[in-house]
Specification:
CATH superfamily of the largest domain in chain A: ATPase, nucleotide binding domain
Number of domains of chain A: 2
Number of strands of chain A: 9
CATH architecture of the largest domain in chain A: 2-Layer Sandwich
Number of helices of chain A: 12
Strand order of the largest sheet of chain A: 3-2-1-4-5
Shape of chain A: globular
Oligomer: homodimer
Largest sheet of chain A: 5 strands, mixed
Chain lengths: 290, 290
């Protein structure tokens, strides 16, 4: 392949990176949502648009049939979505991976180690040599205990328990109830139609009150950190591993990790798009290494 | 009023009890669902049908305009549903109450004390003299921590954590996963469309494995019992109070309560329908007392 493409697509937007066969990025492009779970055709269109923009940014005439692409897409690991998408794409060759895998590749480069992606949800992935293992990522209803949506829901639950006198009220529960005009029924109504991201939007208030010493805020964040530690421990990390905490909650939760995990923390080497481009260069280009 | 009617209506069925002014029950009737939250007109029709059947069972010509009714209805305490329903009913006088209040009246009779209704959800209510206080009952998403739906959801969450190696596997987690063809994705798919009652349907397996000594089953039930204890404690019970645990989980959770609550346990004096009839006889008939 003359060109290699890395694609990082999710529910909010889709990014593409175009590189020469050596893996050197020449241009980047962006487009709208690429949600393969809910809109496969729309996702396909967004991917093509982002790739087109990347060719343009590099000053090149788009030559999709001469490009090998690695795509990291949220939801691609479910059922046969990835395989169906790959047959629709116009690239010379396409390989569809999970969004977590390209994030792992970007964050760790060639090193062994693990990532925790803790945003609205939570997923954990480790690589030791050729062995890759992923846990978590089961979604809001039954999993994602390290993510912001579950944290937000737990905050509302604790607020109701405090309102009922079952748990102590704190400055945080009072502030949350005040957001709902101090009427717990409004809080319940909000939750009835709230999406995970709506619960996740409550996370900043937890951080704010934790900084002020609120005991509930601190204990909620400790619970999240404790789950992240348990998940990373289950992945069987080694002292020499690199560990990157990614996603909107990553930095704040990293600060709450105990030793020995905190000693393994490293900044990510590249982002998920960089990981996708690197994987594409190895697979379809002239780059070597794993 | 010549007649008094007690009505106990919920999402599954609607029951009516007809009594003379003295409160002596002469006939009972039953009909379909009376869900005032989702179908006010249908609930109204079910109520009328059950009342009609109660008159027939007593061998009396229905005389709704000479009947005073107390209706205990799930959801009646939300917004102005109860007031709107009361204007539609054909009875001489109608008073709409929550389902919990008629259950309290039935269970305790004239005594002070408290009830816990722990079925799919959970709600707690205490009476001391004229003072009635209710907590809980906030629904599956943010509350109902003493109910079967939350217990079932927690069971599935623990099963995924065990599958991921974050918590120990037990005979119970293995049995649950086997129900989903040992594919955790099937479990997640089930949960995505499950209603509270579907989660609640998992409760018997928890009791079964608790009896066999499964540590997870026991700890899940201990958590439920611990919430029930905390809620009853928040209601400020006194040593002389009667305590009744009602609902599908009532008996099993009662067995896990510690002293002093377990010493207060009493069987309910009457069911919720009996409570509604007693309230109607006091309010509209010749019966006295509270």
């Amino acid at each position: 392949m003359k060109w290699v493409l890395g694609i990082d697509g999710g529910g909010t937007n889709c990014r593409a990176g175009l590189a020469a066969a050596t893996g050197e990025i020449l241009g980047r492009g962006q487009s709208g949502a690429a949600n393969v779970m809910t809109d496969l055709d729309g996702a396909c269109a967004s991917i093509v648009e982002a790739a087109h923009a990347a060719f343009e940014a590099a000053g090149q005439v788009p030559a999709f049939d001469q490009a090998g692409a690695v795509l990291g897409l949220a939801g691609a690991n479910v059922a046969d979505v990835g395989r169906r998408l790959a047959t629709q794409l116009p690239f010379g060759e396409s390989r569809v991976e999970s969004d977590a895998l390209i994030a792992l590749e970007g964050a760790l480069g060639g090193h062994d180690g693990a990532i925790a992606i803790i945003g609205t949800g939570s997923v954990f992935m480790a690589r030791h040599g050729e062995t890759i293992r992923s846990i978590g990522g089961w979604g809001f209803q039954l999993g994602d205990l390290g993510g912001g949506a579950r944290l937000g829901r737990q905050l509302l639950e604790e607020t109701l328990l405090a309102h009922d006198g079952i748990r102590p009220q704190t400055a945080l529960t009072a502030a949350v109830l005040a957001r709902f005009e101090t009427d717990p029924r409004r809080l319940v109504t909000f939750a009835a139609s709230a999406r995970p991201r709506d619960f996740g939007a409550l996370v900043p208030i937890v951080f704010e009150f934790a900084d002020q010493g609120d005991p509930l805020a601190k204990s909620l964040l400790d619970e999240v950190a404790s789950h992240v530690e348990a998940a990373l421990t289950a992945l069987g990390l080694r002292q020499t591993d690199r560990l990157c905490l990614l996603g909107g909650l990553g930095e704040r939760i990293a600060a709450r990790l105990g030793a020995p995990l905190s000693a393994m923390l490293q900044p990510p080497i590249a982002d998920a798009l960089g990981g996708a481009v690197a994987m594409a260069a190895r697979r379809f280009g002239a780059a070597t290494g794993r």
